[in-house]
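Researcher: Structure for this, please.
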Amino acid sequence: MEEKNAPVKDKIDPDLLVPPHMVGELIRLVTGEWRPDDAQQEQLIAHLIECQDCRIMLISLLSAEQEQLVDPSEGSLQDILAQFVAIHHKIAGLGYEQMGAYAEAIVDQGQDEADKRFPLLVEHLRTCPTCKVFLEDILLFLRETDEIQ
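Model: Predicted structure, token format:
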């Protein structure tokens, strides 16, 4: 199995192979090398809910596994992949809405008030550079829009 994983690992941003990310575990899960217990499953699910990078990586890993199948149009892997992509889109959409609302609250009410209204998002932003950049982009857009008006 290690031979099969080597090319995949070479293409992954090294930052995604260290905590808080779980890409190493995702690779082992998809290839059947890891069978998480209940607590590990809960931890993995909680991380996937929060981490867009790991969700995208899981989609990529599942897609790569599907391509290895003799008939990729058959089987449960295609169903799992389709369901996970749909879930990813729903989570991402909710995240964008929440990030937009948080940014608007920062602009309208100030950082402290916004932080009180969105404590989970504030906690997530402490560990997710991708979302920090996304928030900064939204704030820049909102502030530039205010200046134009």
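Researcher: Any notable elements?
Model: Residues 6 and 12 are 10 Å apart (CA to CA). The helical segments are 2-10, 23-30, 38-50, 52-68, 76-109, 111-117, 119-127, 129-148.
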